[in-house]
């Protein structure tokens, strides 16, 4: 395995929604997860768990729920009104079962202490998701952060045996980009439009 610089990974990482059928080794997934768990975590609680799904039947189940959820959100839109990202999201939804590896990112909720808000709860899990995306990019693998499966949270948890106090927060497909897919090129606002110094404006 070869990798690229951190800044190159950040500059070129983008959503990949079409994947080649080439297998992704256990060693590669382990390398990605070792980088993933280096993310910051409030009070170093590390509430994360990662469910790596390769089993054909399990991927098929997840793919079915994902497609149903995607269709419930976007199915009534005129195709001409959908963005390019949403149109490629439909391709992913229709082919999720064929992706080499799916990783369900999970977060444990603990009863002690005050109940955190959604945004502060996410602060202890989504940095790990970003590490996962960047580590995969560094190794030449495509990923995309998806959450639409959450509409079938209860079904997913029951099928996979996920405990009641654990929530799935992301479903990450991982594989080598299909022919025609490429890294880089994501449009971003220039920092001059989103950065202020000392005070707003």
Strand order of the largest sheet: 1-2-4-3
Strand content: 5-15%
The dominant shape is: globular
Give the topology string: H per helix, E per strand.
HHEHHEHHEHEH
Number of helix segments? 8
| Alpha-carbon Rg, integer | 18 Å
Percent range of helical residues:
25-40%
Distance between the termini: 46 Å
- Poorly predicted ranges (pLDDT <50, ≥5 residues)? none
Estimated structural class: alpha+beta
Mean pLDDT: 90
Quick structural summary:
The protein has eight helices and four strands; from the N terminus they run ααβααβααβαβα.
Offer a few descriptive terms.
alpha+beta; 39% helix; single chain
Structure description:
This protein is of the alpha+beta class and 201 residues long. 39% of the residues lie in helices and 13% in strands. The protein has 8 helices and 4 strands; from the N terminus they run ααβααβααβαβα. The protein has a 4-stranded antiparallel β-sheet with strand order 1-2-4-3. Helix 1 packs across helix 6, helix 2 crosses helix 6 and helix 3 packs antiparallel against helix 4. The longest helix is centred in the first third of the chain and has 19 residues.
């Amino acid at each position: 395995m070869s990798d690229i610089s951190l800044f190159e990974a950040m500059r070129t990482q983008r959503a990949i929604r079409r994947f080649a059928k080439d297998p992704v080794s256990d060693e590669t997934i382990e390398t990605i997860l070792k980088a993933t768990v280096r993310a910051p975590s409030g009070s170093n609680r590390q509430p994360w768990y990662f469910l790596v799904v390769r089993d054909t039947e399990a991927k098929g189940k997840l793919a079915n729920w994902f497609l149903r959820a995607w269709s419930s959100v976007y199915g009534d839109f005129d195709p001409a009104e959908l963005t390019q990202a949403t149109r490629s999201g439909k391709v992913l939804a229709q082919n999720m079962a064929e992706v080499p590896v799916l990783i369900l990112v999970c977060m444990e909720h603990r009863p002690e202490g005050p109940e955190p808000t959604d945004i502060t709860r996410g602060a202890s899990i989504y940095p790990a998701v970003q590490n996962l995306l960047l580590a995969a990019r560094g190794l030449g693998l495509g990923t995309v952060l998806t959450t639409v499966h959450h509409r079938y949270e209860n079904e997913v948890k029951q099928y996979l045996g996920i405990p009641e106090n654990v929530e799935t927060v992301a479903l990450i497909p991982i594989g080598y980009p299909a022919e025609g897919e490429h890294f880089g090129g994501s449009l971003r606002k220039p920092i001059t439009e989103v950065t202020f110094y000392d005070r707003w404006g």
